[in-house]
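Researcher: For the record, we're logging two predictions in this thread. I'll number them. Prediction 1 follows.
Model: Prediction 1, sequence and structure:
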Amino acid sequence: METIAPFTLHTSKEETNNFCDSLYERFSTGVAYEIMSNANETVGKLCECIDVAVLTNNDSRIRNVLQDLFSSVGFKAIIVSNEEGFCKPDERIFLKAIEAAGGKELPRDQIMHIGDSYTNDFLPATSLGLNALLLSPDGHNSCKQSQTISSIDQVFQFL
């Protein structure tokens, strides 16, 4: 086993705190993120014809990020793990998302979950009877047992 020696920053506590605060603020807006090509247009089209909810393992800053990145999109619901007290792959957060999106009235096989993790997205969604797509732009997350797409606009092929 190899041990990595701790490193020392030669900054004051105040400088370190300022840096951390600045970093936290930067990741509170869309400026620190880059979305996939066609994502805004595709998600906008999806929201025009079906109810779309966001289910994310994140904290409440993601609401501002989504507003910045998808300002013209009307999500039915945004389910944030930090606010719910449990995260993917826990089935409770999937059930919360289904309920928040109005999916209690729909048969589960008419609900589609799209995620980028086989373990945290695809497996729990399918175990609950949902349709699921694994988003893997570079092919690294693809799996023989999953329906994989490399671009978000490919979702229309599965609706």
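Researcher: Logged. Prediction 2.
Model: Prediction 2, sequence and structure:
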Amino acid sequence: MAMPPRIIADYVLAHDEQVFHLMGNGRIEKAEPTLDAVLRADGSVIYSSVVAG
């Protein structure tokens, strides 16, 4: 099962790397982290809205 692109981008961004989305027609957008993405001490990313249930 493939991971959704947003989850991958959030993980990379949380580890202080840059992410760019290739949007088509030569357009490139700098990714911003999802607002509720939280980096845990073990290096994983969780989403506070999912944890809050």
